[in-house]
Amino acid sequence: MMRTERIESATQRNREELFRFGTALLFIVGIMLFTIVRTDGGTDGILLVAAAMIGGYMAMNIGANDVANNVGPAVGSHAITLTGAILIAAFFEAGGALIAGGDVVGTIKSGIIDPDLVADRNTFIWIMIAALLAAAVWLNFATAIGAPVSTTHSIVGGVLGGGIAAAGWNIADWSVVGQIAASWVISPLMGGLIAAGFLFLIKRSITYKQDVLTAANRMVPVLVAVMAWAFSTYLMLKGVKKIIAVSFPAALLIGGVVAVLVYVVMRPHIARMTSKLENTKASVNELFTLPLIFAAALLSFAHGANDVANAVGPLAGINEAITEGGISTTAEIPIWVMAVGAIGIALGLALYGPKLIRTVGSEITELDKTRAFCIAMAAAITVIIASQLGLPVSSTHIAVGGVFGVGFLREYIKSSYARMLDEIRDHHADSDPEEIEEFLAEFEAADVATKGDMLREIKAQAAAERLLGKQERRGLGRVHRIELVKRNLLLRIAAAWIITVPVAAVLSAMFFFMIRGMMLP
Length: 521
Description:
By secondary structure, this protein is mainly α.
């Protein structure tokens, strides 16, 4: 019986995998047939068809890997279901790409190579095809092993490798490469610190209070208003800039106006919600459900507006080179090219996105709605700060860094709390067990300030009576090292980040030589 059930389970998995593969293949075949109709045949027609198919493959991999960062925390915290997250993200990713993706896109991502050193139009086309294919293959592999990586870094590595293969080491702008390498540290560190900072603020101002609902009535509308400011400013700078040019001061002002309106609306809404909740820490989580849904939608819209260029930028450049006969660092985006990117991202998310959504949302560390809210805040605020300081950051690295940040803060807080309890028990070692439990219950119910006073009193008495020496304290610290973040995932993701650019570059160089070998007479 058990053997039959295992066979049925395996058959079901194979059936689902075959459906996903078949749907993805139909999308690629559809792109091929559509592009064939638009071409006049010949070598250029073949190249454009191949480039369009690879562009669609790249777009699906962006959806499968990168979009998880926008909705993963909301799913992991149970603010929305996996199906709901996929529907929201697919709709807003495609909307961001089509509405705010722009009419012109950079063909050579981040100015990583000097286009003047590219020999001719054909060489440029081969570099772009190799870059797209290399980035897509690497993203596919990263998704398969459950590692969220930067799609921007993937395409940068692809362009870098293809450019070096075509024209040598001097074609690369190594200062830009250095900035990208710096972002491996800057992005996750900033995201982690900001997310941890917001979580600490929420704990001190709300969940560590004796009357958490009163504290929530006061602080949650403020926090949601700050979130509205951050996301409005973020969208002005990153999502709307290709439709309407908005200066940084104007974006801040618009964000401020939106924040005031949101505060006015949310304050009575939060008051109505708290009147129906119990005075517990768990109740606070329910207040962040609606903000998290909006955050997932807005992050997806901004991501679609910006990162669709990773799929369609090289494809638009190839289309421009074939139709206009020259090399350009910018190219107009035909509607069909943008549609390939938008539909591909949405389809890749729906078919293969759940794996990475689960990794980001629940496998690295346990998330609740409060922690997910802090990660969303970090995603928007880090981009705003970095864009004004001219720092290169990756949205993937920021979001994952935020997840690790809240996880490590929880580890520190729980370890510290365990040491506090041991100090209390050690101080009351000769007391009646009921007296110890009574004191611990009083300690648990106290707010942060009162806990501090109680601990200082205990330490003062312990120092006078020499009940707890330095060596014993260190021993306690070793005993209570609590791990709430999976270290194996941390190492796997960090390794994937570090090798993304070099692996994509090597793959691109290999593909370039293969393409050139096939195309040269």
